Task: inverse folding
């Protein structure tokens, strides 16, 4: 077996997500799911603006804007001890509340049209939704998330009919 330093030399250098986002925006989905040790590392990035490659002794300065999403209430997570309070205040600069799709049923059909049009052409035939296809998600009390709708439209090879 090679010593660790030799193995490092043979492996091509990879750039981490934070370094790749230097000068841009890093999108972090489901931020409240982040483990506490990773929350501490993210806080260090936000406070110092530096990242450290695995196995490196040097810090690299990065200029990154962070956009986060969560389906939980971050303040409740702080109060429950599952999310760092200091990280919460660093991230909670410009909160944007977006109601779930079940509270915005009027947009579901438009979202479905958009998702069908963004699917590869073999998934649809550019025909409008049949009346029966227009109703299920908008009429029933179904809990529908954007990803769920996209996955359904993508993986079931939805073919809207007249």
Result:
């Amino acid at each position: 077996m090679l010593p660790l330093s030799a193995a490092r030399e043979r492996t091509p250098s990879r750039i981490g997500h934070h370094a790749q986002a230097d000068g841009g925006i890093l999108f972090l989905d489901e931020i409240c799911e982040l483990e506490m040790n990773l929350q501490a590392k993210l806080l260090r990035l936000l406070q110092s603006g530096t990242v450290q490659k695995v196995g490196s002794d040097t810090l690299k300065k990065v200029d990154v804007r962070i956009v986060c999403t969560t389906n939980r209430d971050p303040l409740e997570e702080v109060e429950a001890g599952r999310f760092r309070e200091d990280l919460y205040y660093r991230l909670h600069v410009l909160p944007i509340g977006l109601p779930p799709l079940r509270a915005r049923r009027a947009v579901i059909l438009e979202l479905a049209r958009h998702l069908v049009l963004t699917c590869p052409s073999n998934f649809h035939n550019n025909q409008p939704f049949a009346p029966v296809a227009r109703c299920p998600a908008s009429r029933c009390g179904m809990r529908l998330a954007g990803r769920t709708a996209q996955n359904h439209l993508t993986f079931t090879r939805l073919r809207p009919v007249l």
